[in-house]
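FAQ: What does a multi-protein file look like?

Like this. Sequence, then tokens, then the next protein.
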Amino acid sequence: MYKVIGATKSRALRVLWMLEELGQPYEHINAGARSPEALAYNPLGKIPALVDGDAVLTDSVAIMTYLADKHGRLTAPAGSVARAHQDALTFWLIDEFDAILWAAAKHSFALPEERRVPAVKDALKFEFERSAAILSDRLDGPFLMGDEITVPDILACHCLNWAIGARFPRTDDKLFHYGKALRDRPAFQAASAA
């Protein structure tokens, strides 16, 4: 059985959701960043961490990719052109969604108060809106890569949820409904309740 270390209201939700979609059992240790529990699995204290046997894996996207490859679901096959397109979208989401939201979070609460530059958040919201429009244009079906949910959908939806919580401007109707449909999935509901 897998063990997931990390608070539900963090990037650990991505891993929990992935495991629910895969139908894999797991133990969840609800721990915050830099907590004693997190430090026991990652010397940097970052969350999430995934324990699989003797292996401890870190970084939510690396963990999701590992799980998708290991179980042969929610991903295109490694070495395929479809996988290269999927990976390109995943990396784009990390750069253009996740990084923007994390920068806003740093200037809201993560950095020491004297290091925060609150004015930067307006520029980050502009960048996020521009990226959301690009993602919306790319969305041509129920999921980003076609007719089935994949790793980029979990990442994109988590970021869209994060943007809502951070009071970023609402995305267009297409992305709003896409995110709502993903949040309505039983696996998302189960992971959120973990």
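And here is the next protein:
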Amino acid sequence: MKIIKSATLNEIEAKEVSVEATFTKGLPSFTIVGLATNSIQESKDRVKSSLLTNEYKFPPKKITINLAPSEIKKAGSHFDLPIALLVSLYEDKVNFDEYHIFGELSLNGDIKDSYSIFPIILSLVKQGKIKNVLVCEKSAKKISKIPNIKIYSVRNLLEAIDFFKGKEKDKYLYKKEKFEYEKINVNGKDFYFTNDYKLDFKDIRGQENAKKAALIAASGNHNIILEGSPGVGKSMLVKRLPFIMTPMSIDEILEIAKLQALQLKEPDFKPIRTIRSPHNTSTKASIVGGTNIGEISLANSGILFFDELPHFSSSIIEALREPLEDYSLLVSRANSKVLYETKFLFVAAMNPCPCGNLLSVSNNCRCNELEIKRYKNRLSEPFLDRIDLYVIMNDTSVDSKSTITSQEIRRQVLNAFKMQMLRGQKNLNGKLSDDEITKYCILDSETKEVLEKARINLNLSFRSINKILKVSRTIADLEECTNIQKRHLLESLSYRRR
């Protein structure tokens, strides 16, 4: 029996699969077992065609391919190449032990990429289960961004056969590609960003308070809600957030690329954080995750934007409480439980009332007090307690001017980011744990007195106090202050919901 190592996706993580083959006497047949889906069963015809068109005889034996372990459901066309190699080299003494092999075969024997290969290999590298991989050139180009892995690339089945039968394997070694983007180095680690501002804050007139809040949110990854009448610039501001966010580590860039591949998209490997903006009519399963990965999980390392927040169903809004608090989401399914990371920046926009004109200086509000109260009550106190910044955006005058560009904001974000990383933080301020808050959010005696008075007068919960401290820490970082001072705390308190 011969064995080739490969893998399959189990939800969002990879599981190693051993592709086993036996060739026995009996009526010629070709069988694949081991909970293989139709995409794998169809590989029998692709493998046969690839071998026959390249002048290889198909063995006149009873061929059984087993995908072990058998209790895991397998899917994907990338099992074509391992199966074809087992069949074509069944009489040769070949050692496949050192390699994981992936690739879809065309009918003429060319090897093609598939969307699942990149997330599978990335997951295996994180698990420490893979060192050498054999794939096609297109797959190699994508996975060349992954560190700590040796990549060999072949164009077709004949080259793959030559790779194992020949002695010069280094000629198939793929050269790693580097990230060609702007970067900063902090504590010996590279963080990447781009100076391409497709949407710029210079287009927003006025709204200085909202811009400062956006700067704080981007610098510390703080959750934020923007409230204002239609047309004041809420969505306009949010769409510019991804271009000023903190720089990204290689791990974050690869994680976003993995999520793109899981959506059957080509990864772009750009150091720009993604923004997910589901519509308020979306189902709970599409947001949280059901049979497929949800918007909450797809927003990891990026931004999750809820426009018209009160119009989302209460069940969806309340379902956000766990990922906003624990930065993870456990989704239970019939036969499995999947834990997703949810370290995203949550941003929401809402009107002040159902008609939207409550704060308008030019239009009259048509809502009565009961309608406004019902509208506001769609957001529960436990949910709002998980919001760091609550900003009211008023109408701007025609004389209002733009005062700052995205490039200037990004410069401040980078400085604040360096402050956080040089302190030895693993997470940005907005995602600090209780122990980390005690360690990094240091107050002097006068500032502590102000916080205690605020706690009593505003009836602040323990969670609210931690939110205030984390926002204060980011404001201090923007001013490059080592400790939180009174003015930083007072500014942080000004962003609490009233």
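Q: Is there any per-entry metadata?
A: Some entries carry free-text notes. For the entry above: The two ends are 71 Å apart (CA to CA).
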